[in-house]
Design brief:
The chain is mainly β. The protein has one helix and 19 strands. It has a domain of 161 residues: Beta Barrel (Thrombin, subunit H). Strand 13 and strand 14 form a beta hairpin.
């Protein structure tokens, strides 16, 4: 009798759990396929207008397009070049191929500058005050047989520059032509982001690099070193080829995009709130998830984002690039205690 009662209780408990699981699955929202969603955008043919003197009006490798608050558009690109493919150089391109361009909304060219300042342009952003921030990941004395030196004979690359809107250097982070892993050097800095309070975050460690860097470096608004976290690797809190960085969202988090293998990009972690992160303990608690993004040519921005069916809390993860089907590993967005 006792055995029968116990069996009945186990059966009822099992039925209850199954029912709850079924109800939870049934309550999950169903999302349409990204390709089924309406597309409100149209291609503006022949925008923007490039003068024939600039590579015959033809683009090369474009890195970033930024629409500023005044409505004008800044474009950072690799001097209308396409070689080497995927890492086109500005070495030897001359004054006719400047890497920084400004257009008005109609596509009219307003400004062009930066020729001779970069070897391998990579990171770009514009802060709230309209200052331009750029990075150069060149680490070679020669590129395609050409010397990678500026007019002063210094090897180009390994620094982050803050420029005004006429191309004047306002600040340099790192040391041009010098790679390293110290507090005043980078080894192939890939991206830069500026927080609303002026703090500066740099993703450092384009692969390969001689210092084995894979980190984020934080500075004050006046360029004073504050802290660094992360190492090259795939463990939680580490970065395997950090490729770009962004500060934003309602919680003011720092996001790092990581290029893990050729043609595959991921947004690996939502690292911290702006005051910082206890990388020794907090970063290790980041638990990975896997979500998929639609495929698109790398030259185009991905306009649809597919969220994870495994964890809806990851819906805030977003990708800027697509090259092949992507595996994107994100950490749940939870508050991290400032230090």
């Amino acid at each position: 009798m006792v055995s029968a009662v116990r069996s009945g209780m186990v059966f009822l408990a099992g039925m209850l759990m199954a029912g709850l699981a079924t109800a939870a699955c049934a309550q999950q929202p169903q999302y349409p396929k990204p390709t089924d969603l309406p597309n409100p955008y149209r291609l503006a043919e022949d925008w923007p207008t490039l003068p024939p003197s600039m590579n015959g009006g033809r683009w090369g490798e474009v890195i970033r397009v930024h629409v500023h608050s005044d409505g004008n558009i800044w474009i950072f690109h690799r001097c209308f070049n396409t070689v080497p493919p995927g890492s086109a150089t500005c070495i030897g391109r001359g004054e006719a191929n400047p890497p920084i361009l400004q257009f008005d909304p109609s596509g009219k060219l307003l400004k062009a500058f930066g020729a001779g300042m970069f070897g391998y342009p990579h990171g770009f952003t514009v802060d709230r005050d309209g200052n331009l921030w750029v990075s150069d990941v060149n680490d070679s004395d020669t590129v395609l047989g050409m010397p990678a030196h500026n007019a002063a004979g210094v090897v180009l690359g390994q620094e982050v520059l803050k420029l005004d809107q006429n191309g004047r250097v306002l600040m340099m982070l790192g040391k041009m032509g010098v790679g390293g892993s110290g507090t005043d050097t980078f080894d192939r800095p890939t991206g830069v982001a500026v927080a609303p309070n002026g703090d500066i975050f740099v993703s450092d460690g384009h692969s390969p690099n001689k210092s084995n860097n894979g980190r984020v470096v934080k500075f004050s608004r006046d360029g004073r070193f504050i802290k660094t976290w992360g190492h090259k690797g795939s463990a939680p809190g580490d970065f395997d080829d950090p490729h770009d960085i962004f500060v934003g969202g309602s919680l003011g988090r720092v996001y790092v995009a990581v290029a893990t293998v050729a043609s595959r990009f991921s947004i690996r972690t939502a690292i911290s709130s702006l005051p910082g992160i206890n990388s020794a303990s907090q970063a290790r608690s980041l638990s990975g998830r896997t979500i998929r993004f639609m495929s698109a040519p790398r030259s185009e921005m991905s306009r649809h984002v597919a969220t994870s069916r495994r964890d809806r809390s990851l819906a805030n993860c977003a990708a800027s690039w697509s090259a092949a089907p992507l595996t994107v590993r994100c950490a749940p967005l939870f508050p991290i205690r400032p230090i």
